[in-house]
């Protein structure tokens, strides 16, 4: 047997792993594009902030779906919880946006922790079912508690104060856009850190082979519960952003459509790659903005068809396709 | 007759009719999910399709009720075979996310197609004259159509259960649900079995959708609106079970009717809470295998 | 001093089917113990019971004197009980190095860290790399597990177990499905394991068993038929009848 090689002789593989987390140039591209868009498309900032918020929401799903392998159709429960928390605060006299975000994150995290503690003991179809039930429960509760939530008419009377006391929400959505961009950036930094951390790696292990994780002493349930709670908090922040930037909360924040379309956007971009949402969400939402208003039936039909085609032929999404092309390019002499 | 007893009978009656519809629609889903392990959220599409075929035939072409219902059953069962071969078959054994997304895609397509073909409103359904009106039973009168629904449902369920117990086809289904590899190794052609079972399940769903158009209105968003309830029936009943969903449907039908009647300000909230509690106590469902 | 691993009357039944029947086994520190028996005797079931994958119907499991019967699998691993699987159970989409790193991080208690980058702890990388070197697969470190031939994957399986620095190691047919090139390495590694580790090997390859084991337990239909030294087992007529056949007449 060879003697153990010292640190000096550690080969490339180890070095590559040690540096895997370092920031690469292309990772700044989405942010540059987002800042550019602010200047180039000043009349589209409302759509822009919607896109940023949806990216955050899709990111929260990707953390549990793409990294921990938990299939959920009920993430809108946390989105809606965050939205109503921020909304109710602003409608009842406390319109400070940053604390609204914090409160939303806390409420959503608490909800995520409690529901996760209970449903993450199951898996597969049972778990999927339960995520749906919890979201349906919340939506029904919000619907029936119309006195508090405004019910089907939506939550009225929100008054959101200027961000940091300096930047009021304006009619052109400039503050909304930059505010959402800043929050998304911070959330992305946190998510990126998480994904590259030992915790993040262990989530990948849980997704790849849960039996093996148990056999190396990993507290699988605790890890899944932790990421479920964190993702719930992020979804809650996204919901609060929506409430604050539009100064309105409708019942559909808790609806299936929101969870379903987020999944679609994710798979178009690519699941479990952290950047999937940055590609899938803008593509979907810009296309939706252009085509769905004109003919919603047309839109539903073609999106349905697209999902089926993507699932069968391009399961790993656009990022997966890009990876494949890169690998092929590298193999050429 | 005092008010509480009257209310109870009313809830029981309407709940039972609702349960029949839910069961007819969901039993196919239970078997295919248990048989193929496929996360199929689009099953409601077949129920809606059955409703659309029946109402279009009756309203647009004056086809008599029994014929229209039979046509719905056959047409949807046949159509489902095409979809199974084209789409579902490619994803047996694929990961859960792919299956979920595929079925979501199917729902989107069907909702769009229904809106395009027949508009966004619910299809009106008028039962034939001989099934309309009221039936007198002792001191009470019951809606004739709902009574028919209960009886027809009971007949279909009995035929189904007998069929599954007594026929070879039924035996093969039960074997394959129990242990697919074993069934294959004793020579059961599971691919063909899947297709036939899928067709039967979809046909039954179409039957349930068509007959139940009185309770669950046939509108384009049908598959999405009632998705959670179908899934509740199947998961509470137990995947792969045939009797389980019946009791789950009874529970859900009566509880839902009762809650909407007695506690309208809570709506379906308690139903969901009850489901949550049941599935946490027995994750495999009432009749499922652990 | 208490034994490294003990089972007392370990039983498991699935309805009317009994797969483990009052199994008593004792593994001393530094043991080199083999578990043999015909197919379907319940050897893997026994390992599943001991490691906590299956819950016993009756009986107790003691790890270094402490009763672990009610402990979940992961906690038994934390106390030093490690196993390998009969069929490779690895993270096929991850690199060989990452597979072992995951195990090392769990052992060092670093796996729950949400802040520091995973690659920044050199101690983890070095320990993982060292395990790979012991098994001669260090050059495969960056490759994805699924790209490796089955035999090489088996070595990764063993590397993961070594990365956990176990006190009690249960090897379920470590050489199964492995061509002779790799199985030689496996035997070498097993022979050079630290003497303090208590080792239990399930094997069908009798050459391996007689080379590595100082004690052998024979399991038949879920129950212990006999236990003893290799010589005793080879000479036992009941064992010959049930299992050894030709090999025993040497």
Describe the structure.
The complex is a heterotrimer of chains A (333), B (290) and C (250). Chain A has 333 residues and is mainly alpha-helical. Chain A has helices spanning 12-18, 29-40, 45-67, 76-91, 97-119, 124-144, 146-149, 174-196, 198-208, 210-215, 220-246, 256-269, 276-291, 296-313, 317-331. Helix content of chain B is 71%, strand content 3%. Chain B is built from twelve helices and two strands. Chain B has helices at 3-36, 43-61, 65-86, 96-118, 144-166, 168-178, 180-185, 190-211, 222-225, 227-237, 244-262, 269-281, and strands spanning 134-137, 140-143. A two-stranded antiparallel sheet of chain B has the order 1-2. Chain C has 250 residues and is an alpha/beta fold. Chain C folds into two domains: 1-80 and 166-250, P-loop containing nucleotide triphosphate hydrolases (Rossmann fold), CATH 3.40.50.300; 88-165, no CATH class. Chain C is built from nine helices and ten strands. A six-stranded mixed beta sheet of chain C has the order 6-7-8-3-9-10, sandwiched between helices. A four-stranded antiparallel beta sheet of chain C has the order 2-1-4-5, with helices on one face. The longest helix of chain C is centred in the middle third of the chain and has 14 residues, at 150-163. Chain C is globular and about 55 Å long. Classes of the chains: A mainly alpha (333), B mainly alpha (290), C alpha/beta (250). At the A-C interface, helix 1, helix 8, helix 9 and helix 10 of A face helix 2, helix 3 and helix 4 of C.
